[in-house]
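Narrative summary of target 7.
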Amino acid sequence: MTETDRLWAMKTKLEELVCRAGDALPLGRDASQLQIQEKSGPANYVTVFDKATQQFLAEGCHALAPEALFIGEEEDAGGDGGNADTLPCCFVVDPIDGTANFIRGWRHSAVSLAYLEQGQAVIAVVYDPALRECFTAVKGAGAYVNGQQLQVSDTPCKDAVVGFGSSPYYPALRQQSIQILDKLLPQIGDVRRAGSAALDLAWLAAGRMDGFFELRLSPWDWAAGSLLVTEAGGMISDPVGAPLGYAVPKGVVAGNDQLYRLLLSCLR
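Modeled conformation, tokenized:
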């Protein structure tokens, strides 16, 4: 079995696991039944379903790869902790990326899972349960949605649509984000703020938008999406063009070749 075959077989099992987790989420459920709690920082919420989904994924991942540690957003829901950049192998998971959307019944959130070996993402799965779209990638073997291969757009900057995040958990970055948008908007078609970085990166890989930036995200927000982007022919880095790594929160810049370079210039 080749290395690609090994990873592809593992991807298939992880895809099934993530889709099962996403399909169990009660989309549109009344917010009073979600047991919403506020975490550190403004507008930073967790529900009983974030924790239950992470626990389900942790158990499934440990069954598939007992030697791999599990790093998830919800620290008290099945996570092992650890530095993903230095571990031989690990899973990096966001059980519900876009919890604020999920709470409000706005059907734009995702289950995001990346499998890393030697500090590099080699498998990505991002599942949108509302649209029943599963975005997957294996390093060196391309990116797909429901079996259809993905390719980033070749849209020129003047016509481009750029997704962005406002870093709502970090108020000090709010004004800086606005300044970047003010500089960027005259050079592109328009912007979108959808509330799920994992889906923004998946949609970028699918050519549905042309660029993306956010000044501060956690590794579980971009771990899977970063592999989707690169396997679809796009570029992704931190705001100064350095590799992201998976150890600490960072700013993220991604896009097709033209948009990526424009975004880097605006963020600098």
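The radius of gyration is 17 Å.
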